[in-house]
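Researcher: Good morning. I'm working through a list of sequences from a screen, and I'd like to move beyond sequence-only analysis. For each chain I'm collecting a predicted structure so we can compare shapes side by side. This is the next one on the list. No need for commentary yet; just the structure.
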Amino acid sequence: MRSNDVEFNLTENFINQYTRKQPAWGPLGYFVYKRTYARLLENGKTEEFWQTAKRVVEGTFSIQKKHCIWWKLPWSEHKAQRSAQEMFRRIWDFKFLPPGRGLANMGTDALWNKGSAILNNCGFITTESLYDDFSAPFCWLMDMSMHGVGIGFDTEGAYGKPVIIKKPRRSKTEMFEIPDTREGWVEAYRRVLDSYVRRDVLPKEFVYDQIRPSGAPIKTFGGVAPGPEPLRTLITKAMNLLDTYAKNEDPVDSTLIVDLMNIAGEAVVAGGVRRSSEIALGRPEDENFKNIKTVDNILDKSKARWASNNSIVATVGMNYEDIVDSIVEIGEPGLFWLENAKAYGRMHDGKTYVDQRVTGTNPCSEQSLESYELCTLSETFPSKHETLEDYLITLKFAYLYAKTVTLLPTHDPRTNAVMFRNRRIGLSQTGIIENINRIGFREHMVWCEKGYQKVCELDQIYSDWLCIPKSIKKTSVKPSGSVSLLPQVTPGIHFPHSEYYIRRVEVSTNSNLWEIMKNAGYAVEDSVYKENTKVIGFPVHEPYFSKRKDEVSIWEQFELAAAMQAKWADNQVSITVTVRPEDKKDVARALSMYEKRLKSVSLLPLRGDKAYKQAPYEAITEQQYKEIVKKLKYYNLNKIEDKVEDKFCDSDICQL
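Model: Good morning. Structure tokens for this chain:
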């Protein structure tokens, strides 16, 4: 069923109330929205927020309407209009938002042409069946990454029946002309991989002539084509890696799995407009995996080991001492307790085993996932609500958005088979610290408990109406990032950098954005790290401020994560615990104390503002803030000359 068969539209009288208005943007809000989420219109300008909210709401209710008509289920246009208008108002007031994926893509024709993968934040794939289908996990990761999805993967294929890498048989005549499509790129990678396990014949030559040159426009996702070079590099790197193993017919190990996944992610990111992320999960006893990222090999350009965050599949009762030095030095490995993810929803509810088929997690670790499964998220802002009753109303619409996405199939039957069964969603909270500072910790936990009960009630009501399974899990805490910048609330469960600070963002020198912002009085500098890059500094003041992130002990951070895992998240809480130098001695003890209260955690050493030139965050005084703000002028971003940038996994630690 195509998008123009049955459409839902908000009334013109309702929309006219917003067409000349702007929402209550945060200091970076309008800039980030225009740079990242506003789609290009036919008149050459980009959307204003009322147009984005309209597209998102109408897209959501059009999906519901089509579903009901297709399955001959009850549908009331009057009730839908009333509900859709309330969803619009709550998006406009920043009481909730779809994830960045939804802001960028919900309501577009691409949903009907390409499937719903472009609405899903992230997914997971296991390699445990590598012996049966060697190329499948790597190609699925590459395929979904080219849709902008962040992907987690494990290294289980290294521990099962050995997969022997052999010198490939090579055709003497076949010239494989690579189509200029996502499917064409993935197929080229598949041909290489399968030829080294003797399930295909390597073509005599790969021909790249059909691939659009660098700079050609991409209509579906926006931006410009990267040309054939990223794919050519991928194929060259893959063959070099595999040749090393084929020389002695060595079996696949965890190192090769990570490298083959990472170079695929690198090729996707080199496309420019697409952003993705990866997390690699390995066994704690695998020393090769734990040592895969060192200062030397991260810089090795023949591989791409920078491209994934690496975590171990931790077990309750293990010894954590031997990973402390690595955590404090480079912030890895993270930890994912698979046994907890399988056994628990909310930890408060005890073991339920509703999710026994879970095999891993997504790159930011807010969702437990089965192999081939994607996750659908939405984001709520408790601190934007005066009362609990108002927040419970918002949860209805955040739930409706996420649940509606599960009605649409992706392009991959293996993924659909899992997602249609599980209907997994993740209603997230962001600005958690801000709301705790505003109403108190105990009251926020009441909001979580009452909120979770409300979400369960909603899932029963709307799953019955839509005649689909209830969602296996429904709530999470995502790290947030660029979405939380729109209204300017603290990201996820994390503490603010300072009460007053400079937030720096990068743009290409080819963009006209930096000139617009410079003329408006914002500080603009050449990047000291990257060529052809400008850095823009935005002054920020945090409301409801209590303490800086460098003032918070690891114990308080762990306890907050455990509380949210107990009372709110039946999926997971994504948290990056910042580790001060004085906290190092407590890291192993903290992990052992919280191993039965969490499902995942990452830790990152706190370097301080002076550790880097042009740090992303730099604390300033109130007086400095006021002096900077006085010089700022109005800026107009109606027409942006460069591409729209999709940032789909928006944690500071997980985005490529």
